[in-house]
# Entry
Amino acid sequence: MIPRIFSWLAGFALVMIFLVVISPDLFRGYVFSSDDRSNGQRVYETYCIGCHGPDGLGNGPASEFLNPLPRNFVDGDYKFFHFGEAPPLPSDESLEITIRNGLPGSSMPAFPLITDQELKDVIAYVKSFRAGGWVEPKPIQAGDQPIQLQGETGEELFVSAGCVGCHQFDPTGATGGVGPSLTQVGSRLSADEIHQSIVDPNAVIAEECPAGPCPPGVMPQNYSDRLTDEQINTLSTYLSEQK
Ligand code: HEC
Ligand code: HEC
# Structure
């Protein structure tokens, strides 16, 4: 009789240990498929662990030589929000841009060659480190009314419209590495062509971006809702003068 109870208890304990080991995410309040986790973990252990550390604390073996330090994914602050989403946590789309293109000015490398699936999986894995679980950010368009962007001069608009996050542009000190550098954009595009790039970014896709061929559909598609015609004209004219 007694041994039987013991073996039952031992079995129960083993199952609990097994659960904690294979799916710690259940215990962090974040549920996602075990496939995402194991594939994401594999990508992470191949490319990211040396800097971001086995537990996502930003303390991998390479980190002691790095400044800025690799992001701590457990409780660290995220800094890059490419689609104007509300901090503290970025959207998957922003994370994709950060990981594909790297972060200029830091040791965070670009990963242009991992597959879309690997990227999706590693993002799920990175999110699973978050203490307290991950809360999806609110999209910038709260309600029906897109938020209007402020600014009068071309330079002000370039900053307030977030162009700085994705484009290098020396007059404002912007070092964005997602789209082409716009420092001398006036020597290759007219004001009309720049205007079109802003209101209808997919009409013509630029060829060369800092991390390889330019990705279509990454530049925000709704600037014509968020900037007035006058602001767009001011910005296009200003950029066409940068030669
Ligand atoms: C050589 C070191 C290194 C490697 C390898 C590396 N990172 Fe990073 N990563 C960094 C550093 C440094 C930062 C912080 C940059 C900063 O604060 O400007 C960072 C920041 C980040 C951020 C935070 C972005 C934000 O909005 O704050 C994410 C997400 C990220 N890395 C994901 C990854 C993933 C996924 C991999 C593997 C595919 C990876 N990193 C590989 C060094 C690295
Ligand atoms: C989320 C990232 C992102 C933001 C924000 C962004 N862009 Fe872009 N931009 C891109 C990418 C990627 C391309 C290349 C693909 C394409 O042509 O659409 C591009 C292309 C362009 C081009 C064409 C460049 C060339 O060499 O042909 C212009 C001009 C441009 N952007 C202006 C702007 C302006 C002005 C803003 C702010 C109002 C802005 N972009 C905001 C990512 C961005």
In short: The chain has nine helices and four strands. The chain has two domains: 39-140, 154-240.
